[in-house]
Amino acid sequence: MNAPTTPDAPADPDAGFGELRSGTLGVRIATTAAEIDAAQALRYRIFYEEMGAHPDAATRATGRDRDRFDAVADHLLVVDHAIGPGPEGVVGTYRLIRSQAAQKAGGFYSADEYELGAVIAFPGEVMELGRSCVDLAHRNRAVMQLLWRGIAAYVFRHRIGLMFGCASLPGTDPDALATELTYLHAHHLAPPELRPRAVASRYVEMRRLDPATIAPLRALAALPPLIKGYLRLGGFVGDGAVIDSQFNTVDVAIVVKTDLITDKYFKHYERTTREPEA
Description:
The chain is an alpha+beta fold. The chain has a single domain (about 20-275), classed as Aminopeptidase, CATH 3.40.630. The protein is built from nine helices and eleven strands. A hairpin with a 2-residue loop joins strand 1 and strand 2 (about 25-30). Helix 5 crosses helix 9 (about 265-275) and helix 6 crosses helix 7 (about 215-220). The longest helix has 18 residues, at about 35-50.
């Protein structure tokens, strides 16, 4: 459960990659406690007020989605400079936790839902993705592409070899999501050496239908945009879903090897780092 905390300072002042721009929008790593606070406020509005998550008393009182992992994470922000260049302009966010940061917090956030031994044993830098959300008025292709560009830039800077995290489907009834869960299990299950498995006490079977009875393209179209984005990057899912009653979701584990990320993101980042500033 979340607990009230004071705003977190940036975990690593040198974690950023500058700012990538697209019109009035920019993507970068948060550099101040006020920017992290703005991201937590955005998360509260989306997760609790829009998506029906259930806040405890402390979370409701602060109007912030916070937990102990925020203090060790890097917070990716999309900022709309037409609104403002700082906290007031934050319209999208993603939480990024590298292995060393997770050690400071006693482990990764996803470990409460999934056995991560295969992920942690990966021979390279590992990063957990989570807490992704975008303001309703900015929920469009341009912002999502900018978030992916920011992730690619961060991956490039820190030589991340594997990304993972929990992705959510709406509601807490796995039978209502039987088509989507069955499709993911049948077509995108991670290879054994990279496969997280839901902890035994929370394990929910994903293969809820005969895969031969579902239409793959229709099932794919029904998935949330974020999960479709991971799949387009060559992502896999873990074994077993998990019901998250607090956040009113059914979660699946996502694993993405960064060498499968679409080349255009890396090519764009490499080009921008070579171009002189105007």
